[in-house]
Fold:
Amino acid sequence: MRQNKFKKIEKEKRKLAFEKAHEIRKFEIGLYWKRATYFWAFIASAFVAYIAVISSKNEAFEDKDNYAFIITCIGLIFSFSWYLVNRASKHWQTNWEKIIDDLEDEFTGDLMKRHIKNNNKWYELTLSYRFSVSRINQIISLFITVIWFIFLCSSGYKVLCISTFSLFGSWLLPIFSFVTLIFIVVLIKYGISGKPEEKVSLKPPYEKRMY
Structure:
C-alpha cells in the first residue's frame, strides 16, 4: 500500500515536471524573440548612425572618422553579444526539449519525437523544408558580427592614417580598440552560465530581512 502511494506521488512529480518543462520551453521561445528585437533595435540604430556619419558632407564635421570608429566598436560588441545570446537561448531551449523527450512517453506518448518526413528539396522555393529557425538566426547574427568587424577595420585604418601617435596625440584608436577587445574577452569568459559562481545562499525563513 505504501509502495503504491509512493509510486503515485513520484508519477505526480514527473507529470508536474513534464508540464513545467513545457511551460518553461514556451517561455524560453518567447524570450528568444524578445531578445532578438532588443538587439536588432540597437544594431539597426548603430547602422543608421554609422551610415549617417560616413556619408556626411558637412565640412565642419572634421572628426567623422573617429566617430565612425566608435560606432563600429559599439556595433561589434552588440552584434557579438547577440550571437552569443542566440547560442545561449538555443542551449536552454534544447535543455527543456530534452527533458520533455525524457518524460513525455509516460504522459502523451512520443508526440515531440514524431516528425513528418519532408522529401521536398531546399531549392524548391515555394515548398516547405526543415530549416532551423534558431540556427539561421545564429548564422545571421554571426554574419552581422563579421560585417561590423570589417567596418571596424576600415574605420580603424582611416583613423590610423590621420592620427599622430605621441604623448599628446590622439589616443582614441588604441583606447577604444583595447576596450572593445577586453569586452569581447569578458563576454566569452564571464558570459558562460554559472561562471563565476554566485557567492549567495538562501536565508532561513525565520530570519528577518534587513533594509
